[in-house]
Amino acid sequence: MTTVLSVNLAATGQSRTAKYDIVIGTDLLPQTGAFLQPLNLGHKVLVITNSAVRKLHGKAVEESLRQSGYKVQVAEVPDSEEAKTPDQATKLYDVMFNAGMDRNSPVLALGGGVVGDLSGFVAATYMRGVPFVQIPTTLLAQVDSSVGGKVAVNHPQGKNIIGAFYQPKLVLTDTGTLNTLDQRDVLSGLAEVIKVAIIKDAVFFEWLENNTSRVLALEPAALKYVIETSCRIKALVVEADETEQGVRAILNYGHTVGHALETLAGYGAYRHGEAVAVGMAVEANISQKLGLIATNIAYRVKSLLAKFGLPVALPLLDAQELISLMYKDKKVFNDTLTLALINNIGQAIIKQDVPEEIILQAIEEIKDKR
User: Fold this and answer.
1) Residue 228 appears among annotated catalytic residues
2) CATH code reported for the domain at 183-365
3) 155 is catalytic
4) If DSSP codes are grouped into helix, strand and coil, which group holds residue 147?
């Protein structure tokens, strides 16, 4: 059964794309061309992917597009966070220019979060913006990065520093692609699932506590419920605040610490979801130390993360250096950290001016001392 969720941004007055659909189901990749046709896009299409994803899913997408009358150009990028660079974006601009792509020629992102972020950044900036379609093939991309329009490349000093808010025309989520993932990638995606439950839906959080084994077994009904619920929650937040001027900042729970950890450890050492899981554990500690939550709430957060096999301890790194990287985060204003914290399961709060000694204590307490 196919589910269609709509993201309506008309009220924000910000986006060129006032509304788009998230289509969730199985066996959708062979129908890619049919899903594109109602969008009235140009006939020249660039599919951006990597070699591993192309071997698994490229044929179905490319044949479907050609059968629907599209002229298909495929560009493969590296299969790692290292692909998200301005240099890689320039190489893709060259491909698009040489293929004669114009302002109505769509860019399709076939892959995980790295491919989606890079492809969206290229789509947002080529000729001041061309149509963009997300075809996420990892759980993390399906529940998080493909929805909401955040696109970016990295800078050596920080993750996603160079980017834009640029909404897709369509998100095509084929849950069958998840059967090709390794366990580590599945768990990385589940970190973002747990995050939206922590910040916005206590009932969903409790469901995850009670259905962990079903989700980890990739039971189809449980997986579909997880993806639909996560997308629905994120869509509601994005609809209220597309460009993160207010409430959307709660989606950054775990990310301020997580992004700093990714940078400090070196891109690729942690999957994004793994780093965010550690960040959520640290930021639960911070919330507790500020008196926002009781000890048992912080315990439930860290216990659920651990139950799903996600890391909740920091390696033995320099805590002060981690904090210094947090100050290079995009959410820093006037040299002041802005943290998404929690004041209950299902309730998040934006906090500024958190004392540095509190952050330091929270980091030190969660270090892996083994």
Assistant:
1) no
2) 1.20.1090.10
3) no
4) coil
